[in-house]
Amino acid sequence: MMRHLIAILRGVEPQAAAAIAEVLVTAGITRIEVPLNSPDPLTSIRNMVGAVGDCAELGAGTVLTTKQVAAVKETGATFIVSPNCDLQVIRCTKTLRMKSFPGVFTPSECFAALKTGADALKLFPAGMAGIEGLKAIRAVLPEGTLVYAVGGARPSNFADWAAASADGFGLGSALYKPGMSPREVANRAAAVVTAYDGVFDG
């Protein structure tokens, strides 16, 4: 089962990345990103690709330039996440045959991202857009558009976001904070998966 969940490991250290990725995959979260403003992020991504690349999708977040996209591609990663809607970044990502998840906040950004080839939209910051904001945007989006709520989504409000048409979620501190042990992350991941499955399979 492919859950529409993205684990955001902001601040993860390279020596911890593989073990954290392994417990996430075991819990059922199989799409994992390392933001590029983390310590030595490309090494962390390589380590995760080596550990779980056969059973998970690994990528980078906070990707702001085409040069960064190319560097991420070299790690073996398969997707790019950005906090913004940069059309050059989206085009470069698709040219390199990776999935593109740009950050959007307005209908104009949503349609520009989709027209340029985005695979899904990252509503960010979702907490600022709000439930009503997502409902309004969804009303005009093409059928089948995937929207992830990021920045404000957590297990306790998954149901509210899902009712407003969110397809999935990107989760940072709800899953991982720098220095957490694999066991701590495993416990949080289990709670996230239980909440997600309760909403989307219940």
UniProtKB/TrEMBL annotation:
GO molecular function annotation: lyase activity
Protein name: 2-dehydro-3-deoxy-6-phosphogalactonate aldolase
Subunit structure and binding partners: Homotrimer.
Gene3D superfamilies, per the entry: Aldolase class I
Domain of life: Bacteria
Lineage start: Bacteria, Pseudomonadati, Pseudomonadota, Alphaproteobacteria, Rhodobacterales
Record family assignment: Belongs to the KHG/KDPG aldolase family.
InterPro entries: Aldlse_KDPG_KHG (IPR000887), Aldolase_TIM (IPR013785), KDPG/KHG_AS_2 (IPR031338)
Keyword Lyase: yes
